[in-house]
Amino acid sequence: MKKEDCFYLGKIVKKYSFKGELLAKLDTDEPDLYDNLDAIFIDLRGNLVPFFVESSQLHKSDLLRLKFEDVDTEADADALMKTELYLPLDLLPKLDGNKFYFHEVIGFKIKDEKFGEVGLIQGINDTTAQSLFEIDRNGVEILIPMNDEFIVKVDRDNETIIVNTPEGLIDLYLE
C-alpha cells in the first residue's frame, strides 16, 4: 500500500498500559467512525506496514485506545511511539453537498460568480490559520480562503467549485 492511496488518520501519542496498548490522537471531526477497525497502516521509516487491531475503543473525546496483535509489551509499544497512522482512501466516509476532502478537489476548476473562471486547484495550504485554495491561473498563483461563506457550490460531476469572493480579491494577484 502506498501513501498516496491512503489518508492520514492520526498519530500514536502515548502508551496506555504495560500490555502494549497505545493511545492515538485522531485527525478527524468524527472519531467514532474509526472505533471498530480491523487493521491500520503504520508509517515505519517511510513504509506503510499493516497492523491488525485486536481491540480499539474511544478514550476521552479524540483519542483512540488501540491494542494491536503481536504488540504485547511496553518495549513493543515504545517502538510504535510517535508513528503516523493511515487508512486506505476507500474507507473515507463519502461527503456530499459543499463538504469535501482536500485531496479530492485537487485539479478541480475554480469559478467566481463575478470574475468567471479563475483557474485550477493545484493544492490546499492548511498551514495557515485558515486553509487556502492554491490556484494556478496560467502560471500565476492565486490564493482564495476556504471560507464557507465564499464557497457557493461544489460540483463534483463537472469538477468545479463555484465561489463568491470579495470584490477585488482575485484582481490583487493579477496586477
Model description:
- The protein has 175 residues and is mostly beta strands.
- It folds into two domains: 3-91, RimM (Elongation Factor Tu (Ef-tu), domain 3, Beta Barrel), CATH 2.40.30.60; 102-174, SH3 type barrels (Roll).
- Helices cover 6% and strands 46% of the residues.
- The protein is built from two helices and twelve strands; from the N terminus they run βββββαβββββββα.
- It has helices at 74-78, 169-174, and strands at residues 6-15, 22-26, 39-44, 47-59, 63-68, 84-88, 109-112, 116-125, 132-137, 140-145, 151-155, 160-163.
- It has a six-stranded antiparallel barrel with strand order 1-2-5-4-3-6.
- The longest helix has 6 residues, at 169-174.
- It starts with 5 loop residues before the first strand and ends with a helix.
- The model has no long low-confidence stretch (mean pLDDT 92).
Q: What is the element layout, followed by pairings?
A:
Elements: E1 6-15, E2 22-26, E3 39-44, E4 47-59, E5 63-68, H1 74-78, E6 84-88, E7 109-112, E8 116-125, E9 132-137, E10 140-145, E11 151-155, E12 160-163, H2 169-174
Parallel strand pairs: 7-12
Antiparallel strand pairs: 1-2, 1-6, 2-5, 3-4, 3-6, 4-5, 7-8, 8-9, 9-10, 11-12
CATH superfamily of the largest domain: RimM
Rg for CA atoms = 20 Å
Mean pLDDT: 92
Largest sheet: 6 strands, antiparallel, barrel
Q: Number of folding domains?
A: 2
Strand content: over 45%
N-to-C SSE string, H for helix and E for strand: EEEEEHEEEEEEEH
What's the CATH architecture of the largest domain? Beta Barrel
Number of strands: 12
Kindly report the CATH topology of the largest domain: Elongation Factor Tu (Ef-tu), domain 3
The tally of helices reads: 2
What characteristic shape results from the CA principal axes?
elongated
Low-confidence stretches: none
Helix content: under 10%
